[in-house]
Amino acid sequence: MYRDPVPSLEARGLLPAATRALRVGMIGIGTVGGGTFRVLARNQRHIAARAGRGIEIVAVAARDLARAARIVGAAVPVTADPFEVAAHPEVDVVVEAAGGTGPARDWVLAAIAHGKRVVTANKALLAVHGEEIFAAARARGVAVAYEGAVAVSIPIVKALREGLVANRVEWLAGIINGTSNFILSKMRDEGMGFADALREAQALGYAEADPAFDVQGIDAAHKLTLLAANAFGMPLRFADVQVEGIDGLEAADVRGAEQLGFRVKLLGVARRTPEGVELRVQPTLLPATHLLAQVNGSMNGVMVKGDAAGVTMYYGAGAGAEQTASAVIADLVDLARLEGVPPAQQVPHLGVHPHATEALPVLPRAAAPGVRWLRVPLVAGQRLDALQAALAGHGVSLQRVVWADHTPAAAPEALCLTGLLVQATLDDALRALATHPAVRGPVKALPVETLDA
Ligand code: NDP
Ligand code: HSE
Question: 240: which residues sit within 8 A by CB, 6+ positions away?
């Protein structure tokens, strides 16, 4: 029979025998919930040594009870009613790992009303209802932790709220949707089609229940909302994020970007400008040699520019069961360590104490500054200098213009890099090009970022 050769932590005096385990109720036991259960079971001694006490799952809610029971075993009661977990007298912390915004809001608010601390990886819930949830948690004196909600295995919330706390953050930029990055990498490196790559991301558990959230940029916008609030001490402003996903990208965009020495990535950018905070998620061209351009597959990467630290960069898995469990359990350990610490002495939910939150204006789309890459389908026989002149007539200067490789002579395309402009100027020029006799079809325009490279 197997005998554990290591005496227990209690026997070695590393844990007080009387310390009660932190008791967790899970709402949802799918990819994230299941991963959390597995890692807690596998690493329980290691985790207890760090938390100062055990962490034990004592109740689970799911829809498919038979499936849930197969995962957690007979010892853990399962229920189809998440409110039962939220109100369970034995539960200290509720982990919301079900997803969605409507019912999840009600479960989390119910848990808070019952005095439970909450851990969630649900960025949609927090981007949309975070202000209400954090206010309720403050009023009840309980913590809501959410490290798993952004760039799962990267402790970026902790980095912003704690490690970089001395800095006035100037900008942050990140590849923060694993599914989109996985699809772009598969399409570029293996020539896989969009639909096949998305199916593979879904099979691997990376995608949201509705994958439109991933490919339309909405999930990345949820995460950017949380990052920007923590970075700038501003409220959650999800409705003001300018969002465009990878679903509108064509193979010609990826090839055309590469021809000019760039890679296309779905990038979230939050940047202070004198007129307001720029908040946007868009397919964006990065120099092919840029560190963020090397972030491939389901990996995520985030760069933060602070006035004191300078640029720091964080890299790690962006999705996945145990990768998210790593963050969820880190939150549970934090909560175990913080028991008894008065709320006023804990890290504020969004990094800044509520009375000091700054209602910074968000830069309107029309005022967004930057360089743009253009792909312009031209009528055969046209000249590049004619295109250049047409754009110049609307205030758009070009730093580069070339013919796209791989386009047939009968249907040529020009690739351009503009000078610095604001979006309103480009919009005006694109409206004019739409009816220009030399232009054969819709012009594609994407932002270019060098991120102080
Ligand atoms: P899954 O679909 O894999 O799991 C969801 C779980 O919630 C299932 O166990 C499901 O039960 C349960 N559930 C859903 N609705 C209800 C309900 N009304 N009542 C009871 N149980 C319910 O989702 P994920 O684990 O992938 O995602 C969960 C959350 O984590 C989401 O907010 C997601 O955005 C976030 N997240 C996901 C990551 C990932 O890599 N997958 C990474 C980071 C965050 P049943 O199985 O019985 O239907
Ligand atoms: N669907 C999300 C992604 C899961 O692909 O990034 C992690 O938040």
Answer: 279, 362
In sequence order, which residues have a C-beta less than 8 Å from that of residue 397 and are 6 or more positions away? 391, 418, 419, 421
Catalytic residue among 116, 123, 223, 305: 223
Complete domains list, the chain, with CATH: 22-152+322-356 (3.40.50.720), 161-318 (3.30.360.10), 367-448 (3.30.70.260)
Pairing assessment for the beta strands 55-61 and 369-377 based on DSSP bridges: unpaired
pTM of the model: 0.95
The string of pLDDT tens digits covering residues 325-376 is: 999 999 999 999 999 898 889 999 999 999 999 999 999 999 999 999 999 9
**How crowded is residue 206: how many other Cβ atoms within 10 Å of its Cβ?**
28
Nearest ligand 1 atom, CA 63: 47
Question: In the prediction, which pLDDT does 343 show?
Answer: 85
CA distances from 194 to 139, 186, 293 (A): 46, 8, 19
Residues 21/9, Cβ–Cβ less than 8 Å = no
pLDDT at 13: 54
Q: Look at residue 452 in the predicted model and tell me its pLDDT.
A: 78
Minimum CA distance residue for ligand 2 atom 8:
319
Of 213, 219, 226, the one to substitute when testing ligand 2's pocket (max ligand atoms within 8 A of C-beta) is 219
For residue 428 the two structure tokens come to: 């005006």
- Phi, psi (rounded to 5 degrees) for 38: -65, -45
DSSP, residue by residue, 106-124: HHHHHHHHTT-EEEE--HH
**Residues lining ligand 2, CB < 6 A?**
152, 177-179, 206-208, 214, 219, 318-319
Q: Give the residue carrying structure tokens 């055969």.
A: 380
- Whose CA is closest to 67, among 28, 38, 26, 32? 28
